[in-house]
């Protein structure tokens, strides 16, 4: 596939509507989960939408999260002092991927490996930033995730 016709991960998964569907359903599962439910007990109704907007920007979509919410430092701030464990992180990532399957999101090896790559990175960062004594770098750049080593979607 010529380089200029390779879509962003954001376009490949179906844009902001697909991300909103994903996070709406995902946080329903999260709330019902015995391990994660209590962690998200006080989550606001607009939380799924905020996470969809954040993921959109990371995956190559519009930079609305940076414009409206304050970029990566603001997101990191939400995790401070939450004492997240690896067990909770693994459950979070697992439920998100199960929800992607449930909603029939693209499941080609290239897309899923890129998505898992970001989720592993982002969720591990969330755990690190949830430990006591961590300070937020106010200039931390927004991560931008692409196709990685595979360089594009499945072409057969
Ligand atoms: C790639 C990984 C992750 C991303 C992109 C992400 C993104 C976000 C964003 C954007 C917010 C702010 C939402 C808002 O402003 O309403 C947030 C808050 C939060 N996140 Fe994460 N997060 C990630 C991983 C995790 C994990 C692994 C956990 C726990 C296991 C977690 C727990 C929370 C909690 C508890 C909040 C605050 C919820 C509340 O408002 O009460 N996050 N996250």
From TrEMBL:
Q: Which InterPro entries does its entry note?
A: Globin-like_sf, Globin/Proto, Hemoglobin_trunc
Q: Which Pfam families match?
A: Bac_globin
Q: Which residues bind heme?
A: 50, 74
Q: What protein name is recorded for this chain?
A: Bacterial-like globin family protein
Could you tell me the keywords of this UniProt record? Answer: Heme, Iron, Metal-binding, Transport
Gene Ontology molecular function terms on file: heme binding; metal ion binding; oxygen binding
Source superkingdom: Bacteria
The record's annotation in Gene3D superfamilies points to: Globins
């Amino acid at each position: 596939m010529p380089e200029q016709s390779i879509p962003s991960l954001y376009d490949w998964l179906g844009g902001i509507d697909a991300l909103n569907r994903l996070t709406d359903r995902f946080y329903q599962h999260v709330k019902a989960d015995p391990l994660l439910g209590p962690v998200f007990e006080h989550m606001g109704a607009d939380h799924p939408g905020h996470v969809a907007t954040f993921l959109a920007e990371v995956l190559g979509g519009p930079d609305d999260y940076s414009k409206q919410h304050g970029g990566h430092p603001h997101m990191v701030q939400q995790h401070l002092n939450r004492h997240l464990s690896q067990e909770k992180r693994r459950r979070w990532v697992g439920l998100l991927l199960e929800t992607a399957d449930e909603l029939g999101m693209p499941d080609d090896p290239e897309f899923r490996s890129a998505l898992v790559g970001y989720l592993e990175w982002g969720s591990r960062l969330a755990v690190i930033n949830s430990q006591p004594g961590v300070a937020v770098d106010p200039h931390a750049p927004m991560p931008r995730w692409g196709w990685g080593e595979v360089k594009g979607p499945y072409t057969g």
